[in-house]
Amino acid sequence: MFIPSLLVIIGFMIVHIFTNAIKRLEKRMTNRLVSLVSGGSIAYVLLHLVPELTHYQDVAHKAALVPWLEKVDYVTYMSALLGVAVFYGINQLSEKSERENRRKENLTRPSVPVFVLEISAFALYNGLIGYLLQELSGDNIAAYVVYFIVFSFHFIANNRILHLTHEDLYTRIGRWVLAFSVLAGWILYEVTHASDLTLAFMSSFLTGGVVLNILNDELPEERESSFPAFIVGMIFIAVLLQVIIV
């Protein structure tokens, strides 16, 4: 599915490059949009990605793991937990750096090294989304459409937070790095062949990261989230998954 996947990747790049345009929207409208996309993303994770963890666990169970990993129960679920931990840690580091900069330097954003770390982590994250596109969508054109809608939603929410956090650094550098990291992941998939076990661990790690980032985008009180918009997004993606793919 070379052409459909390439079109999705190009769409993702456009979303990354132009997401900061939503700052021109009225704040209330922006908050509703973020809640809408967060609801859609969480529906996709819980109805599509999380159930796949059972399949990934079966793959790991049948594979030849290193001895210490063979003793770990639910090893791919542990990979998902690692995804949660990594992005939670980066988020905490970013918030701590922002507080210190505000106190010491009268700046409203984290330090440049923290920006580099956070953008690098999200570049890896986006690369995984590009790499796993065809694995998670298969030969179903409708699945590519849903994948594009869901992760475009997710990118919009993530990018808004990154833009608010890092300001002009994100606009000048960050959005371009993230846009091309999705493309890099897709190209890497086209020129390499990962084992089923590697794909299982990558997909599990991505699932954990998606869960944490959705909650980080949506839960903080200062985000002024919209519950109705969140529910609409959730129902929309749930219906798409049930009607189009299943």
Name the structural class. mainly alpha
Q: How would a textbook summarize the main sheet?
A: none
Question: What is the overall number of helices?
Answer: 10
Shape: globular
The count of DSSP E runs of length 2 or more, i.e. the number of strands, is: 0
Low-confidence region ranges: none
Average of per-residue pLDDT values: 85
Fraction of residues in β-strands? under 5%
Straight-line N-to-C gap:
19 Å
Helicity level: over 70%
Element string (H = helix, E = strand) = HHHHHHHHHH
Give a written overview of the molecule.
The chain is 83% helix and 0% strand. The model has no long low-confidence stretch (mean pLDDT 85). It is mainly alpha-helical and 246 residues long. It has ten helices and no strands.
What key attributes describe this structure?
single chain
Write the layout of secondary structure elements.
Layout: H1 2-18, H2 27-62, H3 67-70, H4 75-104, H5 112-131, H6 133-137, H7 141-166, H8 168-191, H9 196-218, H10 227-245
Short description:
The protein contains ten helices and no strands. The chain has helices spanning 2-18, 27-62, 67-70, 75-104, 112-131, 133-137, 141-166, 168-191, 196-218, 227-245.
